[in-house]
Design brief:
Number of helices: 9
Distance between the termini: 39 Å
Largest sheet: none
Radius of gyration: 18 Å
Number of strands: 0
Number of domains: 1
Length: 211
């Protein structure tokens, strides 16, 4: 039960920052000339790319911290600010430039394999998602195990969302997508603030003289 709760606590922030729902309009736009089979293949590759990228970030995160001499709390603060900026874009229902720029999106339409770039990276597995899994996986196996399971579940959820979007394109309205994206942005902003507060609190406490 404790492991399931830990997986859920990791799943929610990772799913929110990956935001497969927010990527639906761009996925449909970049694959509008593709057949159903091609769209399904693109969705699968995008989900696999996202999953592999985030798994890699979770597994090597601690090594990167040690190599660059960065503390987890410093990374928490930086990641929190980054997530908050992304949350603002979500609340205003605009494509965040931290995930994919306009040239990357335009290039993705012309590329044969859009599932890897820019859909998988950096649209879904962007800097914010990578920073999130690195923070969540800090602390060894007790933290890493649930995060790895959560990443796989996020990858499966991403695949299901993209496949469902391709099937229900004519039923999806901009208003519906906007409401979902705003709710994700609000939740993401709260997660970001908590990350900053936790990081600052830990840094302040660690700098105080011990009696």
């Amino acid at each position: 039960m404790d492991f399931a709760i830990a997986v859920l606590k990791a799943f929610v922030p990772i799913f929110v920052i990956v935001s497969p729902v927010g990527a639906v309009p761009l996925f449909l736009g970049m694959t509008q000339a593709d057949s159903t089979a091609q769209r399904q293949r693109t969705a699968l590759i995008a989900a696999l790319t996202t999953t592999c990228t985030l798994l890699g970030a979770a597994l090597v995160g601690q090594q990167l911290f040690d190599f660059f001499g960065v503390t987890i709390d410093a990374f928490r603060i930086a990641g929190g600010f980054l997530l908050f900026l992304i949350a603002l874009d979500f609340v205003q229902v605009r494509q965040t430039r931290m995930k994919a720029t306009e040239p990357e999106i335009a290039e993705g339409v012309e590329k044969q394999e859009t599932g890897i770039i820019p859909l998988g990276i950096p649209m879904l597995a962007g800097p914010g998602a990578i920073a999130t899994v690195m923070v969540l996986s800090h602390g060894g196996w007790p933290s890493l195990g649930p995060v790895l399971v959560a990443i796989v579940l996020v990858g499966l959820s991403t695949l299901l969302v993209l496949l469902a979007a391709a099937r229900m394109q004519q039923h999806l309205s901009a208003t519906t997508l906007g409401i979902v994206l705003r709710l994700e942005g609000l939740l993401l902003a709260a997660i970001a603030v908590q990350m900053v507060v936790t990081g600052v609190t830990n840094l302040v406490l660690s700098s105080l003289p011990r009696s």
